[in-house]
Amino acid sequence: MSKRVLKVGLVGGGGGAFIVNPHSKAIHMDGTRRIVCGALHQDADVAMSEARKWPYPIRGYRSYDEMIQDQAAKPKGERIDYAVIVTPNFVHYDPAMKLVAAGIPVFCEKPLTITARQAEDLARAVKKAKVPFGVAHTYLGHWSTWVSRWIIQSGKLGKVRWVDAYYLQGWLATRLEEEGQMQASWRTNPKMAGASCCGGDIGTHAFMQMRFVTGLKVSSVRGMIETFLKGRQLDDHFTTYCKLAGKMAATGGARALIRATQIAIGHKNDLGIEVNCEKGTLIWRQEDAERIQIRLPGEPDRDYWRGELGEKDSLLGKLPTWVSTEPQIPSGHGEAFHDAYRRLHAAFEDDVRKYNAGRKFKCDGSKYANVADGVAHMKFVEAAVKSAKNNSRAVRM
Q1: How far is CA 34 from CA 37, 305, 365, in A?
Q2: 120's torsion region: left (phi>0), alpha (psi -120 to 50) or beta?
Q3: What would the DSSP string read from start to end of 285-313?
Q4: pLDDT in tens, the chain (397 residues)
Q5: Same fold, 6-139+341-370 and 140-331+378-388
Q6: Residue 254: which of 222, 280, 276 has the closest Cα?
Q7: CATH code assigned to 140-331+378-388
Q8: Model-level pTM?
Q9: What is the side-by-side strand order in the sheet with 33-39?
Q10: DSSP labels for 166-227?
Q11: 199, 385 Cβ separation under 8 angstroms
Q12: Per-domain residue ranges of the chain
């Protein structure tokens, strides 16, 4: 396959958008991808101004419609190879549908859309167009998340009984939306964020961490969706009790607590997962992302560090080659948020290159979240909200 540098276009990213920065760094880290253009804001004049102020030369467009129309008219190799959508939730669906219809692969920020119905429409469009589509669940990109997935789904600790997946923050402990803070303003607005603020924003990360690591699906949800700050339009505290199904579920089934909060003062980006299996427990935290903890009955706790696993381990046995070869820097030099994004973009690049070459690509959710994962997290959030409105009665997924 050609190793020419892939061209990437942006939808959104101007006007002080936070999330475009890690995407931009990750896209350029390997030297095999670069941003060449963007429709950076919904206001046409602002979009062009932001393009002119970009740190390096890119082509600016007045709207994403203009960008898609212009790029789709170019032959492959000259047009963008994929687009990254980094807008608020309510501006995901329309550009994604139009890019997919134009045959341009898409890497979209989460949550996928603002309703499950939109997500299902988009999934059908992706299936019809047969283009790569990724959803930016950042924390799936950590090396330690990939290894955790391999440990659990290889059955090294036995079947899964119980999972505690959580994301704890404190940044919305005050009414920042009343102070004009951009990130708070749209996240707490149901027209822009969807049915849930806390659940859609970070509860989906906890949901995907559980789904990705264990391979299990949520079969039913009981939700308690709460708003602690009076006058806030959407929830700032999100708690669900879930039944799980899948081949890694223990006899009698598996259960999970999938929870999130944005009013826990002192917590920053405390995403974590604990998986209790028949033979042991696996623990991982995003704020300590270099380490995987394994606890076995009657034995000392084990710590596995990125870069310290070789070809074989006394507990895990023979390890896949990528476990030791994927890390790019020695242990003790911390990977982090940007590296996780880089790993996702690199995995997506592989599928885009295959697509460009007319070869089969998997896009199967094993290295980054795909459109089916996006549908699942939207159905999960809506089921939790529906349950909460009905005295926390179980809602089937």
Answers
A1: 9, 31, 24
A2: alpha
A3: EGGGTTEEEEE-TTS--EEEETT---SEE
A4: 558 999 999 999 998 888 999 999 999 999 999 999 999 999 999 999 999 999 999 999 999 999 999 999 999 899 999 999 999 999 999 999 999 999 999 999 999 999 999 999 999 999 999 999 999 999 999 999 999 999 999 999 999 999 999 999 999 999 999 998 999 999 999 999 999 999 999 999 999 999 999 999 999 999 999 999 999 999 999 999 999 999 999 999 999 999 999 999 999 999 999 999 999 999 999 999 999 999 999 999 999 999 898 889 999 999 999 998 888 888 999 888 999 999 999 999 999 999 999 999 999 999 999 999 999 999 999 999 999 999 999 999 9
A5: no
A6: 276
A7: 3.30.360.10
A8: 0.96
A9: 59-60, 33-39, 6-11, 82-85, 106-109, 133-136, 369-370
A10: EEE--TTSS-GGGGT-HHHHHHT-HHHH-S-SHIIIIIHHHHHHHHHHH--EEEEEEEEEE-
A11: yes
A12: 6-139+341-370, 140-331+378-388
The CATH number that domain 6-139+341-370 falls under is 3.40.50.720
Alpha-carbon span 189 to 187, nearest angstrom: 6
Give the residue carrying structure tokens 């704890």.
168
The total number of residues written for the chain in this structure: 397
